[in-house]
Design goal:
The protein is globular and about 60 Å long. About 35% of the residues lie in helices and about 25% in strands. β1 and β2 form a beta hairpin. The protein has a domain at about 5-90 and about 160-249: P-loop containing nucleotide triphosphate hydrolases (Rossmann fold, 3-Layer(aba) Sandwich). The strands form three sheets. A six-stranded mixed sheet has the order 6-9-10-3-11-12, sandwiched between helices. The chain has a four-stranded antiparallel sheet with strand order 2-1-4-5, with helices on one face. With about 250 residues, it is an alpha/beta fold. The protein has helices spanning about 45-50, 75-80, 95-100, 115-130, 145-160, 175-190, 205-210, 230-249; strands at about 5-15, 20-30, 35, 60-65, 65-70, 80-85, 110, 110-115, 165, 195-200, 210-215, 220-225. It binds adenosine-5'-triphosphate (ATP) and magnesium ion. Adenosine-5'-triphosphate (ATP) binds next to β2 and α1.
């Protein structure tokens, strides 16, 4: 059997006196879309920040394709094929769509930016991914939140990332924009060589687009099931029951 794209074993993370992650063990299979859910403050973003090299875990082990790794930085993780899309922080508003697509990976001819090639490739790549942007020369500040998010996802894909981490890619989005991101994720899934973790609070969307769902509670994974075997009601009950228990304590 082949190793998972990503394996997380017994990861812990504290911020001073606060334990954000106590003991997290999970895996992401190749070509799989894993939904990560949990209450506000459950530690989801902290886990993603560990997986993308931003935070160092206090304990535990990460493996990529079966090889243990210690992620030194976001760039190091990126060099291993792990890319992240943060909500809101993904793009530079003042730059054009195509400059954003090539951010930190600009194409050059000698010392000069090769704008013409970047523009053409950005256009081709977005079209490939089914993202329609009229003019890739427009500043991203002029685009909708959904379009911006779609460009951030497309950029991660274009970077040859094999593992993509999406922290609430659908948050604060209208139905139409949300649908575009979900379509993009489905297109990625069809490519088959990308593995994805998505954090989302909308369980219907999680069940719609993910293959499997993990619930994070008390800094550990308490639930792991294929989405085909679980309903929105069940997930809601799990999280609400937990919330009620917390209030009684
Ligand atoms: N840099 C930090 N310094 C101190 N505490 C932090 C830091 N980052 C996160 N925390 C704390 O760790 C806990 C987990 O936070 P995290 O952002 O991972 O939650 P989350 O599951 O992503 O929540 P949400 O669904 O609201 O985004 C919270 O109690 C939070 O306040
Ligand atoms: Mg979060």
């Amino acid at each position: 059997m082949s190793s998972p794209a990503l394996q997380v074993e017994h990861v812990a993370k504290r911020f001073g006196a606060l334990t954000a992650l106590r003991d997290v063990t999970l895996h992401l299979d190749r070509g799989e879309v894993l939904g990560l859910i949990g209450d506000n403050g459950a530690g989801k973003s902290t886990l993603i920040k560990i997986l993308c090299g931003y935070h160092r875990p206090d304990a535990g082990q990460l493996s990529v394709d079966g090889t243990p790794v210690v992620l030194r930085s976001v760039d190091h993780a990126r060099s291993l094929g792990i890319d992240t899309v943060y909500q809101g922080l993904a793009l530079v508003n003042e730059l054009s769509v195509y400059h954003n697509m090539f951010l930190n990976r600009e194409l050059r001819i000698g010392p000069l930016l090769d704008n013409r090639t970047m523009r053409r490739r950005a256009r081709e790549h977005l079209a490939d991914m089914g993202v329609t942007i009229g003019d890739v020369g427009v500043e991203v500040a002029k685009l909708s939140g959904g379009q911006r998010q779609a460009i951030a996802v497309a950029r991660a894909v274009y970077s040859d990332a094999r593992i993509i981490l999406l922290d609430e890619p659908l948050a604060a989005m209208g139905a139409k924009e949300g649908t575009q991101i979900l379509d993009l994720i489905r297109a990625l899934k069809r490519r088959g060589d990308v593995s994805i973790i998505i954090i989302a609070h909308n369980y219907a969307q999680v069940l719609d687009v993910c293959d499997r769902v993990n619930l994070l509670q008390h800094g550990t994974v308490t639930f792991d099931r294929p989405t085909a075997e679980v309903t929105v009601e069940e997930l809601t009950d799990l999280v609400v029951a937990e919330y009620r228990r917390g209030r009684k304590e």
